[in-house]
Amino acid sequence: MASTEAPSHRRAWALFVVAAAAGAGLVSPYVTFHVGSGRLDITGRLHWYVLVVHIFAALVALVLGPLQFIPAIRARRPVHRAIGRGYLLAGVLPAALAAVPVALLSGRLLTQVGLTVAAAGWLVTGHLALRAARRRDFEAHRSWMARNYAFTFLAVTARVVVPLLLLAQLPFRGTAERASFGNEAHDLIPVGQTLGWIVNLAVAEVLIRRRRARSAHT
User: Fold this and answer.
1) What is the mean pLDDT of residues 16-23?
2) How far apart are CA 69 and CA 78, in angstroms?
3) Rounded CA gap, 49 and 55, in Å?
């Protein structure tokens, strides 16, 4: 057991460190609560307010999520349940609900579709994880939580995908065209948002299948 728990322990703590560092960077433009700060286009005060709710609730989910996968914390059921409730009720639920108007008010079709689908997936996987825990199917619960956190981690992955897309174009651009990369990065945000949760779900499924394969051989 120790040999399989140790890598899981290290990955979960590494994920926590990355999530905390990335989360601090993501919310920093919004801590002043100045309307219009941040890198996203805002269409009005309503858009701004729901965006702030979404960002700060998503930060709660982003930071609490990895703690759910740490074996030592999972073994302490009351602590695990308390963190899980905070993750879902103070993080995922308000962040997902706020993501829908944020997406619809963006005026960008890909953002509207991509983020709305992601918000729905976020809520559905959270509900299924909770149902699995209530019927004490902890293996299914863990799998659904992994998928749920894949949607949570979208905020981080999207900001990695966009620079990678720009770098992939670099060899095919001239010097003058490279000067416009700043504007193109802004235009690629909806692509990064959509690819982010797709990539994360794919990674989550790979990890889930590997864990099941290991369990079947023990």
Assistant:
1) 93
2) 15
3) 10
Identity of the amino acid at 8: S
Token digits of residue 156: 């981080």
On whether the CB atoms of residues 148 and 92 are closer than 8 A, the answer is yes
Q: Which residue has the tokens 């689908």?
A: 117
Task: Quickly tell me which residue has 């899981």 as its tokens.
Answer: 8
Q: Summarize the chain as % helix, strand, coil (round to 5).
A: 85, 0, 15
Q: pLDDT (tens digit, 9 = 90+) per residue, 153-171?
A: 998 999 899 888 888 876 6
Each as own residue / partner, the long-range contacts of residues 20-26 (CB below 8 Å, 24 or more positions apart, any chain) are 20/63, 22/62, 22/155, 22/156, 22/159, 23/59, 23/62, 23/63, 23/155, 26/55, 26/58, 26/59, 26/62, 26/155, 26/156, 26/159
- pTM across the whole model: 0.87
Cα(28)–Cα(22) distance, integer angstroms: 10
Q: b/e map of 51-85 (b: 16 or more CB within 10 Å)?
A: bbbbbbbbbbbbbbbbbbbbeebbeeeeebeebbe
Give CA–CA dist 65/150, Å, rounded. Answer: 10
Q: What pLDDT is attached to residue 112?
A: 93
- Nearest Cα neighbor of 196 from 107, 117, 128 is 117
DSSP annotation of 39 reads: S
Cα separation, 36 vs 209, whole angstroms: 43
